[in-house]
Task: inverse folding
């Protein structure tokens, strides 16, 4: 369940990234929609990092790195 939420947040971050690019091209950088897309993208990235940290803390996510 946690992994699905992380994947969903990453996909939403990508959608926000490309919507910001679209608004930047369409509005020539004069509108506030680019700023709104950036704000949403930063919030989604912070939520993703928080979920990953919580997953490692709670033991639901584990690292199998050998180093």
Result:
């Amino acid at each position: 369940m946690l992994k699905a939420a992380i994947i969903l947040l990453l996909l939403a971050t990508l959608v926000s990234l490309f919507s910001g690019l679209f608004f930047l091209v369409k509005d020539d950088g004069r509108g506030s929609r680019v700023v709104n897309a950036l704000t949403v993208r930063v919030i989604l990235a912070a939520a993703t990092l928080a979920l990953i940290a919580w997953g490692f803390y709670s033991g639901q996510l584990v690292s199998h790195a050998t180093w």
Summary: The chain is about 80% helix and 0% strand. The radius of gyration is 16 Å. The helical segments are 2-27, 33-58. The chain has a mean pLDDT of 92.
